[in-house]
Design brief:
The chain is an all-alpha fold. The longest helix is centred in the middle third of the chain and has 28 residues, at 16-43. 85% of the residues lie in helices and 0% in strands. It has helices at 2-9, 16-43, 47-71. It has one domain (2-71). The chain has three helices and no strands. Pfam families: DUF2768.
């Protein structure tokens, strides 16, 4: 169901170069999320760690959506 919605609204309007750039954006966002979570777990404590973890999760979800759009 989700893939059908993504295909209908986003990927159907992208050309192959657009899909390539969308996949690069998704990969970049996932790398940023990994770096944020690594920093949060090694250098921070308390509520700062929680906030950074939540930011990393949100960035990871956006990266996953970009990756799904580029696949469809």
């Amino acid at each position: 169901m989700v893939l059908a919605m993504l295909q209908t609204y986003a990927a159907a309007k992208l050309d192959p170069m657009g899909k390539m750039w969308m996949s690069f954006v998704g990969i970049g966002l996932m790398v940023i999320a990994a770096l944020i979570i690594t920093y949060a777990r090694s250098k921070t404590k308390g509520w700062v760690r929680l906030v950074l973890t939540l930011v990393a999760v949100v960035v990871l979800i956006y990266g996953m959506i970009c990756g799904l759009i580029s696949i469809v």
